[in-house]
Amino acid sequence: MKKGYRMNRREFTGFAIAGIGMLALGRAICFESAEAAAAAIMKITKSNEEWKKMLTDEQYRVLREEGTERPFSSPLNHEKRTGKFVCAGCGLELFSSNTKFDSGTGWPSFYQAIEGHVETKSDTTLMMQRTEYHCAQCGGHQGHVFDDGPKPTGMRYCNNGLALNFIPDKV
Fold first, then answer.
1. Of 22, 53, 105, 126, which residue is 20 to 30 A from 70 by alpha carbon distance?
2. pLDDT in tens, 96-132
3. Across 65-78, average pLDDT
4. Is 48-168 a CATH 2.170.150.20 domain?
5. What is the SS3 assignment for 123?
6. In angstroms, rounded to a whole number, what is the distance separating the alpha carbons of residues 16 and 96?
7. pTM reported for the whole predicted model
């Protein structure tokens, strides 16, 4: 720009509109859509006493204390209907029935979680390295994920049945 140049109103307005457009584009790129931005996970926090009031003793042990249920004990192992599997602690949808498979391990297994609905962390209990996953909304322990699942992802989300509720599709 020339020394002593002053921007006129028309140029200022043009630059302002361009800047707003760039911000909107940046937001669209980050969130992919307004719906995705609105669907951001809202964290739920409750006291131990509140969780104990709303969960069974067994669910509390699994979801809040990172316990594991006995293999082959969950009725969800045999669930074949179409629908969604949601966190038993908060109701967040974690898996579609389309991704469920029989892993033979004794726990409900899925090859893909709903994107952004589970969070992982390293678990070194039992003297081995595993990847534990939790509900992204309430932090409830769900199970462990392994890389020995079927195509297309090759993943096996091995879930405690007590940590899930099944909601069938309406027919």
1. 53
2. 999 999 999 999 999 999 999 999 998 887 778 889 9
3. 96
4. yes
5. strand
6. 45
7. 0.76
**Nearest of 87, 103, 85 to residue 95 by alpha carbon:** 85
Catalytic residues: 158
Cα torsion at 93, 111, 120, 39 (round to 10°)?
Answer: -30
Tokens 């937001």 — which residue? 27
- Two structure tokens written together for 55: 């969960």
3-state secondary structure of 100: strand
Q: In whole angstroms, give the CA distance from residue 76 to residue 140.
A: 18
* Domain parsing of the chain, residue ranges: 9-38, 48-168
Q: Tokens standing for 130? A: 């595993």
- Mean pLDDT across the chain, nearest whole number? 86
137 contacts 144 by C-beta, under 8 angstroms? no
